[in-house]
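Hey, I'm writing a tutorial for new members on how sequence and structure tokens pair up, and I'd like a real worked example in the thread rather than a made-up one. If someone can provide the structure for the chain below, I'll link this post from the tutorial.
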Amino acid sequence: MTLATWLTLGRIVLIVPFAAALLAGFEVLAAILFLLAGITDWFDGYVARKRGEVSPLGATLDPVADKMLTGAALLLFVATGAVFGWHLVPALVIILREALIGGLREATAGEGVKLPVTYLAKIKTTAQFAAFVFLCFGPDAGILSVIGLVLLWIAAALTFWTGYQYTDKAVRALTLPIE
């Protein structure tokens, strides 16, 4: 087990206290826990590359941890009313893209094709995680809520575009004739 893998596992473990804090109305604590989880997302990859500890387990767990954290956060934001009405559309775009890209990565890996994370996808993740930190403060948080929802729409637009890019690359790779 590498340090990077432990950081990824830590991100998964943080989901439960984040959820408990959010549901108990401890918005500041929830925001801090989510921010900490977001930092581990950046830091685990950095540590793995810097220390030469990129492993199959870490490479598998990292996107799974991201999907777990994203799905849990969006579900909780809907439950607390921070995401409501038409704002469910970007939440749905984000969730559907996560499922699609996870499946495409699995399918293309079986063909020896990798779908590496792009720079734009990293910007998408940053916008998404920033939105989530603001959304921790709930629907009655005034400007913080508005900032969170605007960032959610921006993240969804980037999600849609990067999802299209990954899908296009995967479809091209998976529809090549077998020799």
